[in-house]
Queue: 2 jobs
Job 1
Amino acid sequence: MTFEGILRSGLIENIGWTLVYSTWQIAAVGAVLFLILRIARGSDVRYFLSVAALVVAALIPVVTFFSYSASRPSARNAVAEAFADGAFGAPRTSALQGPAARTAAFSPVGSSSSERPSYLTTLRTRLSAGLEPVMPYLVGAWLIGFALFSLRLSGGIWQLRRRRRDGEEPSSEWATRFERLCRRLRIRENVKLLVSDSVAAPIAFGVLRPLVIIPASLFMQVSPTELETLIAHELIHIRRRDQWVAMLQGVIESILFYHPAVWWISAQIRREREFAADDAVTRSFEDSHVVYASALANLEEIRHLAGHRSPRHANAANGGNLMERINRILKKKTEIRHTRFAWSAGLGMLLISAALTTVFLLDGSSLINAESKASGRKLAIGFVSIPPLDRTANAPKDADATMRLLIDALKRHKMPATGFLQGGMISDGEKFLPVRKEIARMWIDAGFEVGLGGFKHMSLYDVSVEEYIANLEKNEGVAKKLLGDMANPPRYFSYPFLNTGKTTEDRAKVEAWLASRGYTSVKYSFDNQEWMYSWAYDMARNDNDVNTMREIRTAYLSYMEKMFDHYEAYSTEMFGRDIAQTMVLTSSRLVTDTADDFFAIARKRGYTFITVDEAQGDAAYKTRENFTGKAGISWFERWSMAQNRRLRDEPNVDAFVEKTWEARAKK
């Protein structure tokens, strides 16, 4: 059947008029649903009514199409006639054609053509005559839109299937918990639980093979009790067959994409679906209202800071309007048992509402900017050493992977870090070690600044000034060969172990040498024992001890939060403001594996990320100090000692990490 045959068949005209009539028909369905929802109570009832309205909105155009085709005189057997006529056959004529035919077809029975047409009939005729020429374009636009939205739906389904493939089995502990949850919630389907880094919130999907995917980082960011409520939310979606409705929504939205009422109805379905699942969670877990509301708040904050969005065609725990859901959960709690839990639920609502007001009024990036402007906090990071230390049995292959992960994380979070070169790791002093050289080149090619460290990582306290400077000169030669003409020469020097020598004279000689070569030594305001955690982490990786690795990551992030508190307190106490902090870290696998969580913590505290050069330009770094000795300590401590201030108690390294380090030192 050719395009000319299709035009003569009236198919395009029938579709076009169906689209025209559907505009007011679907709008009427939306209006009726709006009025019904004003009086309907109960999330399950409101959800059912919304789904029914969407189905009706989808069926009405189908009924209209067949009714219009049957009532149109020239449309009877039109398709068959078009095939019979052939591509170039003359069309069969009819006594009535065009607008007049449609007017007659819908005229009242018994009316006479000789009678004067009514105003409504005249208006319909003029409308038909005006729309007739544009019908092919109208239908063409609809077909293009339908194709695009169908591709969108297919892409969403493909994305979900890919996430199924990327997922991994959870730990045995959580596999057992998941089985207990399924039994508790009376889940009849064989539901599978997976863990993945590709999602930012728990999601449930799959029509024939239902699946729940949990973000790997969530196991460390929320309590087990909170996580159980979030998983229960997904299981309830599966129990209610919500994934079937979600797929139906996707199909109808693709077909009726042009109508705002369809999108409004679909939004009501998603809203009421989340409400219904929330109600089921709170019914299944006794006294869980505040815990569940807190879990949702934490989840949304994590998602915003990470900048992720949940897949559209999956049911996600953070779907819908979280602020509305949380307030509703807590309000429901106070209504049910207001005497016993009014105070705790009210306080939970107050705290969570205050936190989420900021989260929901702003998207992830604007949230970060707002916090940064409010606090004015800035953070620079210097990494020692470049390339990463070879602590594993797979060195230097492991160092290569660590460098790639670190560069990727820094770029994602827009951190303009400086890496300090340790030449002895890429050269014997005469020639380069090819593989390790390329690992160091990665840092340069990625556009990050290179600073000067020592050829060997030696402490000024342990060697003579002459030997120390000779070590720096040797490293300088390696750096120049490595950099060539492709990058700016190093500007900053980082004292290994942050040690500045036994005496002020030794330190002055080193500083004089640095100045003569155009280097400036970095003053780290934010020192820490990350290297101890990184050592323990690498040992656990060598043993494939996943549980210990997870424990170390959690302990490390908690420790660094305490260190933020520690040095921020120093800043306020000494300068009455938040100075630009300069932090020292090693380029370890622990740092790369926790980068997303660490940078989220920093952003949450109001930090923006700056260069070492910008941070060192803060006037605070001109504060005088003359510390020397065996220790390598932060400049906050040096400034405090120079002013005879009492040093603050530093947060302790976790005992099991310190024990691992001490065991290493004894070998």
Job 2
Amino acid sequence: MRFTARTSRAAALLAVTAIAVGLQSTSAPAALRLSPLAGEMKVERYAPAVGTLPDGKVLIAGGHDGRGTYPRSAELFNPATDAFEALSATMGTERAGAAHVTLADGDVLIAGGHNEAVAALRSAELFNPATDTFEGVPFQMTTERNGAAATLLSDGKVLIAGGANISETLGSAELFNPGTLRFEALAPGNTMLEEGGRAFESVVALPEGGALVAGGVSAKSGFLRTAEVFRPPAGPFESLPSLLHEPREEAASVLLQDGEVLLAGGYNEGASSALDGSEVLSPATKLFTGGPEAAAARKGAGAALLSDGVVLIVGGEDHLGPLTSAEEALPSPPSVSTGGASGITAAGATLASIVSSETVGSVYFQYGTSSAYGGTTVREPFSASLAPGVVTATAGALAPATRYHFRAVAENAGGTAYGSDQVLTTAAAAPLARTVTIPQISGAHESASRWREGGRPASISTARRLPVGTTLSLTLQPAATLHLVFTASRAQRQCARRGGSHARPRCSSRRPAGTLALAGHAGRDRIRFDGRLAHSRRLTPGRYTVTITARDSAGSSRPVSLGFTIVG
């Protein structure tokens, strides 16, 4: 992992995967560094117990102050304020060099270690963050262990490996079961592979399961560069071919969010007092590479991973003695590239980015009609991964047929990175749907079915009562042209003979008599008709049928027929 000074903390913690169009290539983040904290602990603490709590704070308990005292006090580091807060509760037993780890339920296990009276302890206790109290574990470890290391395995149990008793460094390991509060020795013969055992080594859980056991010191071989892996649920230990760059005991160690393992500081025979370098184990290659240089040389420090991926390194000892200082391993800013746009409509589009980051963070897009942008999408979280991943977001409320600029912006606890500017053009607005209404006639009626002819041509009537003629009335929706077709009925003397009957009934026939076309308006229309089709043309007395149809560009109504008789 690479580190730098912090510019912001990212709050997002969820992984997002998506499909993108036209994505650009991305490069790895730049190398960064460790950064000192302004705040300091209340008490000097060499080899304290450290654990991250469910609320994001970090417990720092016990240790040695360099003046012959083993403080039972504890304090909390608050990432929101970068400050240390004293706890009123104290540990049940003075201890430094204890194995410590945060359990799945948020409690912190503190086991073994030493104090002024006892060179190697078997007892253990738990810190309960719900009550801010320390509670003794009713059962003891299978053997005394000072300088052992612990880590939480994937099955919820805790591996406690190595350490030293009053006479030797240990190759044995045991498991702590949080459900029963008991310690269980591994099967006989299932010990670490380093001949002579390990004490003050680093033990860190690995992403694929199991645990890394690295470095430390052996009564037989001295300071160690070797490493091995514990395979759950109960072993065995397997040798790791890769060696540390230099022997390292009492190093602060932690599993990072991207799967790498950081080992910082420590001590070996070549160091005047403590180491200020670090190294990183890659999960892909299982090789150790050089890491960032610390702000201060320290051994016996504690380390904890914060929720935003920052690593807190606290306490320890340098050539002057135990420390109150702390520093943070800060990630580099993420690497981000702006991708293409997909799902483009008249009002929105899906924007894509490629992001790689050592820690969790968030990505959003700036967009606008110029490269000054002005609008932003909702922040989308991304997970820690050195392999590039795709993150998308939706830009909405866009104008149709408009050219927009956009770019991706990614943030993590190490800073902010910007993708290149890209453009898109929204689709044209869809034409408004036209509502087509075919004319309709209802309520057709005539004022008189027998009437005398008048002398005026037909027109829309404004009078309700006429002395001659008739008034045809109807309701029309919407406005349309009214077509009136008149047919005359003429009686015939005889019809064609049917069957064998000699009787010939009277029959009638119809013939066209004329037409009218009038502009009707929406609503109730009245047509005054005195029998004239034009000034010089009129219907002669007789029986008639008028068929009325309304027509416009949308179509024609169903015809309506009325009958009348003109009396001579």
